[in-house]
């Protein structure tokens, strides 16, 4: 572990700055959109732009990296992301922000792809699991901390946008100063969505539905809280609890799925998420909680924590479940197919959820989550009736963030071994 940190500190530091900015700007834009009276559906449409850019970038960026190299692409898209957030403070309208969010999504998937490619190059078959764990801690921890920066300046001011840009610019310094040679970019094999579906119908359908719900959660939770008259500090608490609880839950829920039928764990988890989404409605003070409980946000925080605990490990569970039914050498390719399905769902999630909020009211946010999590659960029950559980000794749960790219999936210790990295000389170390 110490060797990993020593040889990769620049990369982890750069990604920490990026995720500080990412966590901050997601909360900032949600709050600012409400303050600017964008309208809920317009806000949802705007946030969908990020996932459109992410989806497009996942296909285009590997080609660009192959042509010009990792460092140039990282510098270009970190700079682009830094410029784009500043433009948000100049062009304040839903259409402009949609286009800017598209560019942000394109930039972020570029940075994730480069970081994970670098980590693969610096990993061996013995330590890939440790590398992925550190990577997850950096991503979730930095993103959660970044959400608290919303308290330092009013979202209506231009200073928050400058601070986000500053974090993104700072990410360039450790990366550009590294002496380590950039890795050789390896083309990731893929399976068609039809092939992955034939191997695991539940995996593909649940990945699609998971993309719909998770994109809505991360995009619109701050919007929901703002519309419910939460203070800026209370909004930062809510978004922080979402990120941290989701990270913590990966290990216990994942290990449980290695012991039981994984579909059963997915079903219980997703219905658990739906339950806590319903309880969040009750604790919001708009329905039937007893007076005293309805006036405090303590129970709402608890509901968000447990909702996140049940919901956010879902993609990693789906990935592991799909691997139960395919050969080991196809794990990464199948993961790429699942990411494709997740991305298709993610592009529509914020907009569909915003329509629920427009027609039903603010709590339409949680009603949307209840419906889509329940759909995963009911489909899982159906698949358990028509297909027996898989018994693949090569398949195991590995915690991974929702942002993981197909390249990052190679860090999964259960995938086919990658080539051991060549021992670098002292002059080549970071």
How would you explain this protein's 3D organization?
With 430 residues, the chain is an all-alpha fold. It has a single domain (2-178, 190-417), classed as Up-down Bundle (Growth Hormone, Chain: A). Helices cover 72% and strands 0% of the residues. The protein has helices at residues 2-35, 40-68, 70-88, 94-122, 128-147, 159-170, 172-176, 193-199, 201-227, 232-259, 262-283, 298-311, 314-323, 331-360, 364-386. The longest helix is centred in the first third of the chain and has 34 residues, at 2-35. It is globular and about 55 Å long. Mean pLDDT is 84; it is low at 286-290 and 418-430.
Q: What's the SSE blueprint?
A:
Layout: H1 2-35, H2 40-68, H3 70-88, H4 94-122, H5 128-147, H6 159-170, H7 172-176, H8 193-199, H9 201-227, H10 232-259, H11 262-283, H12 298-311, H13 314-323, H14 331-360, H15 364-386
Helix pairs in contact: 1-4, 1-5, 1-6, 1-9, 2-3, 2-4, 2-9, 2-14, 3-4, 3-6, 5-10, 8-9, 9-10, 9-13, 9-14, 9-15, 10-11, 10-12, 11-12, 11-13, 11-15, 13-14, 14-15
Total beta strand runs: 0
Overall form: globular
The radius of gyration is 21 Å
CATH architecture: Up-down Bundle
Give the ordered list of helices and strands.
Answer: HHHHHHHHHHHHHHH
Q: Regarding CATH, which class? A: Mainly Alpha
Major sheet characteristics: none
Supply the number of structural domains: 1
Unreliable parts? 286-290, 418-430
